[in-house]
Amino acid sequence: MRPKKGASVAKPKSPKCRTCGKRIHVPKGWSAGPAVRRHYWRVHRDVMQPEKSGR
Ligand SMILES: [Zn+2]
User: The whole model's pTM is what?
Assistant: First the structure.
C-alpha cells in the first residue's frame, strides 16, 4: 500500500461562505470554523444579529 500524497482525504482548508459563496481564507493556525465566523462578522454582520438594529 502506498501512501497517497496530496490528493484526497485531507480536509478542505478553504471553506465557502454560504451567504456570498466566496472562499473564506483560513489564517495560519486557525481552523475553518472560526475563520467562517470571522468572515460572517466582518462581511455579514447583519446576518449574525438580525434583530439588533440601533435606532
Ligand atoms: Zn460571505
Answer: 0.63
Mean pLDDT by 10 residues, the chain (55 residues): 65 84 94 94 85 65
Residue 28 alpha carbon to ligand 1 centre in Å = 19
> Which candidate, 33, 4, 36, 32, places its Cα nearest to that of 20?
36
Q: Ligand 1 centre from 36 Cα, in Å? A: 8
CA distance 17 to 24: 6
Q: Distance, CA 43 to ligand 1 centroid (Å)? A: 6
Quick one: which of 53, 55, 13, 20 has its CA closest to 39?
A: 20
Q: What is the distance between the alpha carbons of residues 23 and 39, in angstroms, rounded to a whole number?
A: 10
